[in-house]
Design goal:
With 133 residues, the protein is mainly alpha-helical. The chain has one domain. The chain contains 6 helices and 2 strands; from the N terminus they run H-H-H-H-E-H-H-E. Strands 1-2 form a two-stranded antiparallel ribbon. It is elongated and about 55 Å long. It starts with 8 loop residues before the first helix and ends in a 5-residue tail after the last strand.
C-alpha cells in the first residue's frame, strides 16, 4: 500500500481560488452568449445557472477533480476505496463547503489525512496526485 500525500490549507485554498476564477469566466461567457440571443428563453438561463452552480460537484464526481484541483495536482476520492465519489456525495460535499465556508478548514490540521469538515461529512479525502494532470 503506497503512502498518500495530503495537501494542506494553502494548496486547497489555491485550488478554490482557481475554481472561483473559472466560475466567473463561465458566468461571463454564458452572459455574453445569452446576451446575443434575442430574448433567450428563461429555461436557457436556468440551465446555465444550474450548470454553473453544479460545476464543482459534476467535475469531482466525473473526473475526481475540478479545474482548480487539476491545476494544483489534487484529486478528491472516497476515503475508503480510493474511487471517485458519487454525484450525490459531491453535491453534499459542495453544499457543506458553501455553508461552512472557512470554518470547514479548521479541522485540516487535526487529522493525518488533513480532512476538512465537508470531507468528513461525505467520507472523502483530497490527495496530491502527480500523475493526475
Amino acid at each position: 500500500m503506497e503512502e498518500k500525500d495530503y495537501p494542506g490549507i494553502f494548496d486547497r485554498v489555491k485550488a478554490s481560488a482557481i475554481d472561483s476564477i473559472v466560475i466567473v469566466a463561465f458566468i461571463g461567457a454564458s452572459s455574453e452568449i445569452l446576451g446575443t440571443l434575442d430574448s433567450a428563453p428563461n429555461y436557457y438561463k436556468m440551465i446555465c445557472v444550474i450548470l454553473i452552480f453544479l460545476y464543482e460537484p459534476i467535475m469531482v464526481s466525473l473526473f475526481g477533480a475540478s479545474i482548480g484541483h487539476r491545476m494544483c495536482k489534487l484529486k478528491v476520492q472516497n476515503a475508503k476505496n480510493s474511487k471517485k465519489i458519487s454525484i450525490i456525495k459531491a453535491i453534499i460535499r459542495f453544499l457543506m463547503k458553501m455553508i461552512l465556508g472557512w470554518i470547514s478548514l479548521f479541522t485540516i490540521s487535526n487529522n493525518k489525512e488533513r480532512k476538512t469538515m465537508h470531507d468528513m461529512i461525505v467520507d472523502s479525502v483530497v490527495i496530491f496526485d502527480e500523475d493526475y494532470i
